[in-house]
Amino acid sequence: xxxxxxxxxxxxxxxxxxxxxLDDAKVLGELAExxxxxxxxxxxxxxxxxxxxxxxxxxxxxxxxxxxxxMNAIVCVNAGAGGIDAQDWAQMLQRxxxxxxxxxxxxxxxxxxxxxxxAGIKSVTLAxxxxxxxxxxxxxxxxxxxxxxxxxxANARRQTSFAAVSVSPDVEADLDVEVxxxxxxxxxxxxxxxxxxxxxxxxxxxxxxxxxxxxxxQCQNERSxxxxxxxxxxxxxxxxxxxxxxxxQAKTALFEKDKKKIEWGSQIRSYVLxxxxxxADHRTDLKVGNVDAVLxxxxxxxxxxxxxxxxAE
Length: 313
Fold this sequence. Notes:
Helix content is about 40%, strand content about 25%. By secondary structure, the protein is α+β, with helices and mostly antiparallel strands. It folds into three domains: about 1-65; about 75-175 and about 250-310, 2-Layer Sandwich (Alpha-Beta Plaits); about 180-250, Double Stranded RNA Binding Domain. It has an eight-stranded mixed β-sheet with strand order 2-3-1-5-4-9-10-11, with helices on both faces. Strand 10 (about 280) and strand 11 (about 285-290) form a beta hairpin.
């Protein structure tokens, strides 16, 4: 309730700000016409362009009016087909999404990371907090395909690899998602990978299996078993809430069509680094040539076009 109140108050403040700016721009325009001053005319035009851009952003934000859109997000990246290259690609996606969050002034918290043996990661779970984090990042949910000359191939052959991004609302402080004790299987084990003295010496890592749904989550990045269990429960509740949301939306055929295997023919976006350089979104047909910028977190154009297309549907 407090989050919704804050969202509405922010929208009203933004509207009032642009209404005042529009009044000022009108006065400036009338003054420029009376004076015949090109400098004042340019200033009035610049003010009008700023207002137009702000109103376009407000209209875009209006589409993010779902009950979950303003929530924080739990983001999971999993390596798919492609061996070592896919694991390296999963880590590249982790960086891309983290850089996007940083560009927007959001905070990124690492909840769990499963490092691969040779390079990259098998999976990673992030908690991303910020205004409309879930509403925007849900546009990245799906299979991402990379085509490049493999740095792990001695013969420098071209390799295609896949990784999947899943996004669910972080419901920790928003909704009460009930998880019964009898529905849980809790396993503890020794954490692996880089870390302090607790790694591989104490059973601090926790894996939760929700028996009715089959959802499995784990966390090993905290030092204590108690903290890891709390973080794993946080992710589990997010996944359960997302599953409930999917079931409700599937009734109107809006969601389940996006759930696909992490392999050929299922990708939402392709990142081609060789023989040419291009990022292509297969849902909207948007193509961008500056691959480096996209991999560095410049995702706004992809997210905006996708959400606009969803709103049109």
